[in-house]
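Researcher: Please predict.
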Amino acid sequence: MSSNLEIAANAVMAISIVLAGRNNVHSWWLGIVGCGMFALLFYEVRLYADVALQLFFIVTCAIGWLQWLRGNHGGALPITTVRPRRLLWMALSGIAATGLYGLMLHHYTDAYAPFIDSAVLVFSIIAQFLLMGRRLETWPVWLVVNTISVPLYLSRGLHLTALLYAAYWLNALISWRHWRRQRSAPT
């Protein structure tokens, strides 16, 4: 059975993520509220990497909010892409960081699924930085994160959260298409 906290966190974050996919700046302040709720929820079920991730998201939501408003020399930040070489570096760094953080959680905590939880953490951080910079590649990375997250949250009995992450997966796919169209539209 879902708790009131899980229901509220999911409702707030569903709105935030849809707004991000629609390229709407209001996604950021809603993200701050929702991430605070999820930090408490994940602490309750011993997904400590996810707690750390939510705290990271709170900070980056505040920064992203400002960047989207004023990041391009005082104007709105445009949608851009990342060079393939940099994407490769990000992927390899993400794999290495997942292994290192997973080992730390495995040896020093009672974390459930430390390596899978670490992959969610690390690649969410990468995706969040891409989102903060309004990079088109944020959406394929979110597809990977959400693919990993759904079974992890199901395994902890967070059925509503797993359902939300399945919806996030679909939203990432739709948002990727939407951002590609916005980027190629004449200004």
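Model: The mean pLDDT is 92.
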